[in-house]
Each structure stands twice: as structure tokens, then as C-alpha cells.
Amino acid sequence: MQLTINGDLRTIADARTVEQLLVQLNLDPRTVVVELNREIIRRPVIATTPVAEGDVVEIVHFVGGG
């Protein structure tokens, strides 16, 4: 399936949920915020929120500093 991830069109296989997408992208759900089609996806529902052909995903990484 094709998704737009952070502005780039990407082909992703075998990702039916946001959680599966993050696993494929080697991202820890605890360290990112995910926006799917302009809606922020809360951590408790990442595993059950579906992704579909043509979805637009924005992923923001937490960055520590001081």
C-alpha cells in the first residue's frame, strides 16, 4: 500500500495498523507522536487504529535536551 509519511510517498507492505507501521519503520511507539490524516493517534489505540491506502501519516520524534 502507498502512504504519505512525513511528506514522502512510500510503499509499505503488511502494515494494517499504526503500530505495525511503526514496527516496519523501526520506531518505538513510546518515543513518537503519530498524526493520521490530520488526527493525533493516542498511544492506547495505536495497536487498533487501521491504516489504509492513501493515508497521510506524520510522525514526530521526541528529542531530549537541556
Low-pLDDT residue spans = none
> What top-tier CATH class fits best?
Alpha Beta
Radius of gyration: 11 Å
What is CATH's topology name?
Answer: Ubiquitin-like (UB roll)
Output mean pLDDT.
94
Number of domains: 1
Approximate helicity band? 10-25%
Shape: globular
Order of helices and strands: EEHEEE
Total number of beta strands: 5
Give the N-terminus to C-terminus distance in angstroms: 40 Å
Number of helices: 1
Largest sheet: 5 strands, mixed
Cross-sheet strand order for the largest sheet: 2-1-5-3-4
The SS-based structural class is mainly beta
CATH structural architecture:
Roll
Proportion of β residues? 25-35%
Q: What do we call the CATH homologous superfamily?
A: Beta-grasp domain
